[in-house]
Specification:
The protein is an alpha/beta fold.
Amino acid sequence: MKDEDQKVFTNREFSLIKFNERVLEEAERTDLPLGERLNFAAIYQSNMDEFFMVRVGKLVHKNKRTPQKEDALSGLTPKEQMKAICKTVRGIIPRRDTLFNELVAELDKEGFHLVEFKTLKAEEDRKKLRRYFEREIRPLVEPNIVEDKMTFPFLQNKAIYAVAVLQNKYGENRIGIVPCLTGAFPRLIQVKEGTYILAEEMILHFLPEVFRGYTVKAKSLIRVTRNADIDADAMYDPDYDYREYMSEVIRKRKKLKPVRLELSRVLDERIVDVLCSYLKLEPSQVFFYSEPLDLSFVYTIRDLLPQNTGLFYNKRVPQKSPQFDMRRSILDQIVEEDKLLSYPYNSMAPFLEMLHEAANDETVASIRMTLYRMAKQSKVIEYLIEAAENGKEVLVVVELKARFDEEANIYWSRRLEAAGCRVIYGLTGYKVHSKLCLITRRIGAITQYITQIGTGNYNEKTSRLYTDLSMMTANVSIGRDAQKVFQALVRQEFVEETEQLLVAPRILRKTIIELIEEQTRIAEYGGQGYIGLKMNSLADNKIMKKLVEASKAGVKVDMVIRGVCCLVPGVPGKTDNIRCVSIVGRFLEHARVFIFGVPGPEQKMYLGSADLMKRNTANRVEIATPVLNLSLRERIWNMFETQLNDNQQGREMLNDGTYVKVTHGDVKINSQELFFEQAYREAGEPLPESIIEETAPEEQAQPEEAAPVQEAELAEALQKLPEAEPSEALQEFPEAEPSEALQEFPEAEPSEALQALQKAEPFMDLTLPEAETVFDDSAPEA
């Protein structure tokens, strides 16, 4: 790539790290409620886990297969990218540790004390913990001692282990490993009222009790992150049952290579080298922390904190939409006029009632639907089953490759099939990520289509946490296009042409480029060219180059992009006319909207399921629909414009790739709070007290209080499903999206269980430093 191009484009991985820094910034804000700051901190760590599992895992594969191939946007090889990533992440760790100390200090003020064993002064407390350890923990943890002829134990992904360098009576050194989180005892252990200690810290303290007969020379907590980037289609044999095959893929993924090793203590370099040798890691992939390795326990702390005391955000409840009269037929109302729901501001109830009504309406012949991520208790599934049991033709496209939701979707596919629904799994090699529902009615000799196209999943849980748009229409041409999509999926074919819908991978990207070129021509001929884009991520190289051309021609390009943005705005002579704002707030910004032209009858607007990334535009089945109703188009435009001016949660990208808080404007605008205020007013409900205080008088400042990022339960941990393992349930901020091009299975690893050290000295001969480097309880502990 030319150096001049590198100034305009930025690497996707680095952009994702910057996004996660914005999440960390929210946790650092002292003006936010303490409970929500804890939430942000845990989401930050969960995001970093997923980043290493998916994005770094992908780079590991690339480095093995095409080590010299440079990244199209940064010009870096996979190894150079990994080196830069590790350096950048290592530089953020002190911020993360400092933040945690600050949060612990704030918790102390609220009467919740998280202590270390060494800080316990009361002898009775120490004795109590010793008794608890001997009675409740010691019998449930199985220690491993690794000798030169013994296999290194398999370390589960993201699990915490206590590791000790042991010396026997003959002066020989061994390594001891103890699992700390078995699920058989709580992670937060109560010392006394209001005082808690982490189970792993207790186990680390009592390692001498576990390894009696040995001297503990050094010790640390460790945590391994494993690669999760696996190609679910690379080895598929059509003769196999696809569900069973996916179950095997899930099991295999859990044993992929480590990509990161985290330690809670600084250990001697030779000891770290030995661990790296066993785990096949480079020293650059090792990270040291002074605070807990896994912050997920803060969700438990949140539950223990007193409610309604200013420690959490004031409650916001999705409101009934004024577009629907719930006493009338939902289907008939959609026939009368196109409808739009905006989550979480509007309730999902009208859409659910539409499905329920369709399941029982005698005029409904069929329901077709794509499913990607579902709630644990799903009314959508319930109504589809009800429709099948009522004799409707029900076709459901279940995407079994929805990363980290595979087990759940396998379960749902079995439930649906058992009820009489026809279940298919989409196209080989292409994920079906579209959000499409088609209800077909037969009224006399007339066929009527009711089509719903959305930007988010059919998930009742996340509809209260994600900002999404859901459009419902009886437009005949849109309905015919939707029917084409389902027919193509059944035949394992692509949709090649449509009347209205933009369908990836054949149509969407091509049309987006044509619409950008149209605005470019308008500007070149002296007109007012305009492009507005709202999405989670922008990384499609072809589309970004067209946006640069548009900017050079004078087209104004406004973008609201929550996460990855690989196009750098404000570069002189290239992207001067491009502006990018990221909103990190109480709710996860998830809607995708594409706007071409200034407001008016000639403006073209689409909403849909795809981010403008190659994985979406070229490697998935995605749907975008035109917004043909002028009033709905005006509503979406107003929302887009409000978010561009959000100076409470908005951050603007500069031409060096960094982000700064949006500060322009005398009126304070918090878009998410403003949209909720509007929803309450439209529903005729009294405004929550905080909204009244913050927005009165009405013509003055918008809500001053900042909004938090989504709740921690974004990807819920499922109960153990029949014939399936429970989901790993990553927190999903951003949404747990898969990597751009999944790689093939690696060669079978021996569970990282090397029989002996090959690249380091055996522990038998390992000489440890003198007492000054021996770990004891006087060293810093988390």
